[in-house]
Every structure is written in structure tokens, then in C-alpha cells.
Design brief:
Blueprint (H helix, E strand, L loop, with lengths): L1 H36 L3 H18 L2 H18 L12 H49 L7 H12 L4 E6 L4 E5 L8 H10 L3 E3 L4 E8 L2 E9 L5 H64 L6 H32 L7 E3 L1 H11 L1 H4 L4 E5 L6 E3 L1 H18 L6 E8 L2 E8 L6 H4 L22 H11 L3 E6 L5 E8 L8
Parallel strand pairs: 7-9
Antiparallel strand pairs: 1-2, 1-5, 3-4, 4-5, 6-8, 9-10, 10-12, 11-12
Helix pairs in contact: 1-2, 1-3, 2-3, 2-4, 3-4, 4-5, 4-7, 7-8, 8-13, 9-11, 11-13
Length: 492
Amino acid sequence: MQAGLAARRRTVVSAAVRLAVALAIISGMTFTFFRLLLVNATTVGFAYLLAVLVIATAWGLMEAVCAALFAVMCLNFFFLPRIGTFTITDPQNWVALFAFLATGIVASQLSSRAKRRAQEAEDRRLEMERLYALSRGILLTDPAQPVAKQIAHQIAKIFDCRAVALYDRSAGETHRAGPEDMLDVEDKLQQAALQGTFFSDESALTTVTAIRLGGQPIGSLAFRGASLPDTALQALANLVAIGLEKERGQEAASRAEAARQSEELKSTLLDAIAHEFKTPLTSIKAAASALLSAARPKSEEELELLAVVDQEADHLNQLVTEAIDMARLEAGRIQLNKRWRPVAALVSAALSQRKAQTEGRKLDVRIAGDLPMVEVDPELMGLAIRQLLDNALKHTPATCPVSITAQRFENVVLISVRDEGPGIPERDQSRIFDRFYRGRSTRSGVTGTGMGLAIAREIVRAHGGDISLKSSVGHGAEFCISLSAPREERST
């Protein structure tokens, strides 16, 4: 506040000094013409007019108008008859006097306007240079340091501010710069960032404005010691918003790159470990099969134990295969070998490969007769259908059927697998396709790795389709594969 009063006092004193100098110039000219040169009134009038124009050009309209009025009084008193009085005997001199006054005022106004426009043009040029310097500074910010703090220092330096405070709403931090502090505007900073308000104190040269991005306030900026027009202030706020968004974009890109590298590492390790498991599993499977097929007599207990070893080796081999498939899908190393296949053949092949699991179970298979052929990788799409079938068999009681249907809806072929299990709670449905995720209600009662549904979805998406889920607690679950139908009909 004291700084504002001091600045206003300096302005008043400066204006008074300029006015006094302007009147002194007219007084000096009057003394010279009246005492020394002894010229006529016309010459004096032109000299006064020239002096008024010079004053208007140098200082402004107010000083020029005051000088013109004073010059008229001096011309009347010292050079027009009756000399020594403020009366004029010749009426023509009245016309000349008012013509001089009007000419002086109009010329002063025109000169002052030209000077003001030149000053405005210079101010705009300076603003553009400062905004350009700020934009360049924002582009060259160091990602290793807080960008908002660097922007605050750039504003204080470029715009010659005594104090700058930049509040980043997302981070909840205020960054300050400049030789002075602005603790008195902290509440206004918070309010501007939350509500988008604007505050200005001209006496203290303090401004607080919201920083918007997409129409929403993302922060606020306060500065003291600089005065900016509305257009420049808006441009400044926009540049700060771009700088803050640039920082967020860099942080998001860094997180995404770190996540990508982490996923690649996990996929590589998973693939390597799974392949290492394959060798001993193959040996175990071969040994169990050889013992089961050996001609020597075996007891019933030995046969049962060998059957368990053989069956669990198959189960473990299936889990390892799933891990390898998941790693390859995530790494993008799966190559699709697409061929045209009937949907009925895909479903039949999947059921054949799960014959041991489906033996004795109720299956309700309904394939529409007018389905077109689909262009898929038979092995991978068969794996996706098998994963859905395995999931349904695990969650359906042995006495309840598992339904498999295939039909066409407009330009899409739908392959659905429905179970009669307990259903999937709504809280689990958004994550059911995540890797290694298993619903809370099935973690203890159903075996599995949580990779089957994730593998099925990645395979279907690699074919340009998707998998959807319909389920409610107590009414089972239905997984539906959607594949694009061919534009040209191909009969099955």
C-alpha cells in the first residue's frame, strides 16, 4: 500500500514539474519577444504555436493545453492593443486570438494522440517481446526441476516484477519468485484457482488471475510491480497454462514409459521362466506315460498314483502354456495366421480338446445355421473359446448345463458361453479380464491362475473383436465373443 502511495506521489510531482517547465518556456519566450527582439504579434503567435506543439510532442496534452492558454493570455496582455490589459480594441484580433487558441489546442491534441499511439505501439512491441521470451523459456524448462517454479522465476525476470506467486491446483503447491513476498494474497490465490475469480489493486500494482485450461481453472497467478493490459494478461495466463500442461504431459509420458518397460521386463521374465518349466514337465509326462504303458503288472494303488502324476503333469503343462501365451501376447510377438473357418468348426474343435473335462457334463450347444465363415487364426481363436469353456466348467455345478451359442447380429458374429454358477459381483466385473485377477468370491473355492480370461480377451482383440460380460449374483455369467462378419457372404 505504501509503495502504491509513493508511486502516485512521484507521478503527481513529475506532472507538476513538467507543467511548471512548460509555463516557464512560454514566460521566457514572452520576455524575449517583448524586451529584446521587439517583433510583431503575428510572429509571436507563430512562435507560441510552435512551442505548444513541441510541448505536446514532448510531454502530453495536459501540459500543451495549459501552455496554449497561458500563451493566449501573454499574447493578449503584451502584444495586442491595448497592451498591458486583457482587453482587445480591434475585433479582428479577437478572431485571431481564438483561432490561435483553437489551433494550439487541436494541434496539441493531434500531437498528443500521435505520441500516445506511438507509445501504445511501443508498449505492444515490448509486450510481444516479453511474451515471446516467456514462451521460449517455457519450452526450454528443465524437466528435472519443478516447471511451475521455473515459470514463476521467468515471469519475475522478464516482466520485471517485484513479486510473483504461481499456484498449481493439481499439486496444491505455491511457487514464489522475486525480491519481495506476497503472503497477503494467499487467500485470493486459492479463491482464483477454485472459482476462477480475478483481483486487481492498481494502487499497489497487484494482480491475481486464474489460469484456465479448457475453460476450467487449473491454478492461479499473482504478480506485483507490473501493469499489463487485459490482452497481455490473458496471453500470459494462457502461456502459464500451456507450461503447466506441458509438465503434466511430461510426467504422464515418463510414467507410461516406466510402465511399458516394467511390463516388457515382466513379460520377458514370465516367458523365460515358463520355457524353463517346459523341459522338466516334458520329462515327467514322458516318464508317467511310459510307466502307464509298461507291460509289467501294477497294483491298483500304483496305477492310481501314476494316473495322478500324468493328469497333474497335463494340468501343469497347460498352466505353463498359458503363461507363455500371455507373455507373447503382451510383447506383441503373436503372429496371426488367419484362415476362413466355419464358426461351428471352431466350437467343435474346442469341445474336442476339452473332452476329458466335459465328459459327463451337460452341454447345450446351439449354432445358427446361417452363420458366415469368419477369418481367424484357428489355433488362437480355439484357445480363446477353450478358455471361456474352462472358466464356465469351473464355476458351474456338475448338475447344471453349460450353454454355448453362436449367432449373427447385423454385421457381427457372436459366440457366447454361459454358465449357471454363482455369478460375478458388480465390484469384480470391471477387473475380471485383468491378468492374475480372481474374484473375491472364487479365490478359495475355484482353482486357476487368473490368466485365462485375459488371454482370451487379448486374442479376440488381436482379431479386431472384443469380449463382453453379462452377469449378476445368483444368475450365472455369460461371456460373449464378437467378431466382424465378412462383407461377402461365405456359406458354411
